[in-house]
Structure formats: structure tokens, C-alpha cells
Amino acid sequence: MYTFTLIVNIIGIVLGFLMLFSPLFTLSTIRCFAGSYLILLGIDSIVMAASRMGMRR
């Protein structure tokens, strides 16, 4: 989980710098990354829920 957070934060820093220099390009880039982030977040949540189901007794 730490790796995922690190990657998302690095992408956020890069997008911040891009927004300073090219706002229109950044809007389309943010849209793609936001969609990808939400998909990965959903997959991560499903995996966490499924892994906890086996731990119940």
C-alpha cells in the first residue's frame, strides 16, 4: 500500500508543475489520472475486503 501512495503523490507533484506551465494539457491529463486512480482505488478496496473475509471466525 505504501508504494501506491508514493506513486500517487509523485504523480501529483508532476501534475502540479505541469499545471503551472500548460493548463490545458493538464486538464486532460488530470482527467485520465483521476479515472485511473478511482479504478485502482476500487480494486484495492475489493481486495482488502476479500482478504478480511477469510480472517473472520
Tell how many strands the DSSP assignment holds. 0
Basic shape: elongated
Rounded to an integer in angstroms, the radius of gyration calculated over CA atoms is 16 Å
SS content category? mainly alpha
Please report which band the strand proportion falls in: under 5%, 5-15%, 15-25%, 25-35%, 35-45% or over 45%: under 5%
Distance between the termini: 25 Å
Mean pLDDT: 81
**Helicity level:** over 70%
Count of helix runs: 2
Query: Which regions contain 5 or more consecutive residues with pLDDT less than 50?
Result: none
Order of helices and strands: HH
Tell me about the largest β-sheet. Answer: none
List keywords for this structure.
89% helix; 57 residues; elongated; single chain; mainly alpha
Describe the model.
The protein is mainly α. The chain has a domain at 22-46. 89% of the residues lie in helices and 0% in strands. The chain is built from two helices and no strands. The longest helix is centred in the middle third of the chain and has 31 residues, at 23-53.
Summed up:
With 57 residues, this protein is mainly α. 89% of the residues lie in helices and 0% in strands.
Task: Summarize the helices and strands and which ones pair or pack.
Blueprint: H1 2-21, H2 23-53
Helix pairs in contact: 1-2
